[in-house]
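Weekly sync notes, structure subgroup
Attendees: PM, AL, DS (notes)

Item 1: joint prediction request from the bench team. They want all two components modeled as one assembly rather than separately. Inputs as received:
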Amino acid sequence: MVRIVIVGGSDAGIAAGLRAREVDSQAEVTVVVADAFPNYSICGLPFYVSGETPDWRQLAHRTVDELQTAGLDLLLDHTATSIDPARHEVRIENRNGNARAIAYDRLVIATGAEPVRPSISGLGLPGVFVLHTMDDSLRVHNALANGTVHEAVVVGTSYIGLEMADALTHRGVRVTLIGRAETVLPTVDPQLGQLVEDELRRGGVDVIVGAEVEAVERDGSRLAVRAAGGVCAVADLVLVGAGVRPNSNLAASAGVETGINGALRVDRQMRTNIPDIYAAGDCVETWQRVLDRYTYLPLGTTAHKQGRVAGENTVGGQRIFEGSVGTQVVKVFDLAVARTGLRDKDAAIAGFDPLTIETEAWDHKAYYPGAHRLCLRVTGQHKDGTASGGADCRALAGRSGQAD
Amino acid sequence: MVRIVIVGGSDAGIAAGLRAREVDSQAEVTVVVADAFPNYSICGLPFYVSGETPDWRQLAHRTVDELQTAGLDLLLDHTATSIDPARHEVRIENRNGNARAIAYDRLVIATGAEPVRPSISGLGLPGVFVLHTMDDSLRVHNALANGTVHEAVVVGTSYIGLEMADALTHRGVRVTLIGRAETVLPTVDPQLGQLVEDELRRGGVDVIVGAEVEAVERDGSRLAVRAAGGVCAVADLVLVGAGVRPNSNLAASAGVETGINGALRVDRQMRTNIPDIYAAGDCVETWQRVLDRYTYLPLGTTAHKQGRVAGENTVGGQRIFEGSVGTQVVKVFDLAVARTGLRDKDAAIAGFDPLTIETEAWDHKAYYPGAHRLCLRVTGQHKDGTASGGADCRALAGRSGQAD
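Output from the run, pasted for the record:
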């Protein structure tokens, strides 16, 4: 009977455990979970903050009971503190500091990511939140519940920032959104980012782009956010979404090699350089199919797939992770934005000779009740009229869409 | 300069003409259109009848102006009466009976389908419509507009019947839907058909299944619909949707081979047995990818693709039609139903050893605002535990979904 230990109870870790049990119902699977919320949807936090998902328990993909019924032993409120690869042991401790070692035949590192704390002074002030975990979200929710938050500043214009601006507006809070990039949602082409910015303004959000936030300061009972160039916004609440970085210290300390952004290096079977240690999810480098190389691309859907591959391989499988094309979708007020593959700029950096076309189309036939216009941008490999044409068979799969 | 003549101005014919011009901007493309409505969406007729698409002109995929600007010469209100393959000529006549011959280098037959007139007596009575063309639809619309239609009977429970039941209900007409099959929408598994029937009843439609309609008779100023077994419904309007059959007489008279249901035989390049004569759309046999053989499968999306292939090949292309998997989607009141591939029953008939699983899932994460339950049925090739497993790599791609 193979003993599988998994460190991490979010998408990758739970997917690994469930898959291992699917393939080998005799496998003994233990999941070390740092808090009491295994298998929670981080992507759902904005809907909890907005009030549209009233009960935070709804954010669990599966309940603890369901996970246990599927055969996972959950060690809730336990942290893994070190790994001894030679002895095949993980040292863990609970919230009281009681420590012990547990043995593994195969280990899966699924420690995820942690929010980047940007070099902004004052992030420790009350009322400032760097959002990432369920705990953070409950704290924001509580701050909103007491009715003293009328204005908020959201720092960061990526997915979480836009969704939080939407969520807070839905709660009746007046929002100022501040971002460093020249257009919001910098993972899509600027032309689409502009459409998202227009939608945010239509929704009542003040948008400030191209501004580097330097400090959050007390301003009486409120908070002032200062950016270079004199930009300043005053609010009752400040949320910071500045991206994430891999939470790879535990594994790196045990000798697992790291690479891009400090993420754990894995092969396509999600094996690290250390025998019997696998890794998956936001703590690892991710194979990018279009680029044909590894990148750092923390996404829930990818973490889930990588977890399944790792889980299957811990019980004797030979599954290959097929890679990501970077598909992402976000809804901002009444605008849905989707992207996949490479943007024009990414393609050029990667050495392609990209050609991008922008067009408009309907999501249904125009006569269909409720049909909407779509703005589409498609990026492909530019055709060299003098060449044989072989190169342009390579699909860049770059496409960004917007529905209004 | 190549002269292309296309007979038929619906999806296949227009797609062929546009594609020929895309590939060869010197091609001289003439499209013979029997009425004044080229490139109209037959699929959109229910939305015009319901009033949701208020102007019938909205049902045009493209206007006459747009088609002419794209380089198509349109001969509206002209009918092709015969083909002389040896002389490469088509004989046409206009509504006044004036006839002439036009020459072609390549000819595309895109004459579509015509509604099956089932063996029901009384189909010629005023107030009885066998729906298929724009003209039919305008007549139904006019019949509704004078306000004397309070009750209707729809005969046939395939796509058009269900959509018309929905559309008439939307107009405030009380509908009785009568079908021969044991469940409505017989192109999906009966278990899903039952869900559609439930939705129709929730929407106020009287549904009668397993009933063979024999006659429509005058009943004072109204119409009585009689089926075997004594079933009878009385109404002001009767719509009949009993499927379609290929409109292949013109080509067959010129020596084009016919096959299944009398549809024209084509190869994967949409060539008929007669040199320089291509055919596409609802008048031809369609390559079914899962079955690996030809079938008769009249669908707008398929017609469009076949038309593009034919059009490209008339100007020197070597394009192959990749085949259909029979994907279809319909919305009935608030229920969307989609299917693709083979149903369990079709797979068994085709010699597969099918296994069908029914399950439920959410279309979004359960916590997401507006998430709906989906009922899914997936059909695959049953695994033979003793065999090598090679056979079950063959994807049946059978899947039917229902969103509530």
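Discussion: Residues 300-314 of chain B form the longest helix (15 residues).
Action: AL to compare against the crosslinking data before next sync.
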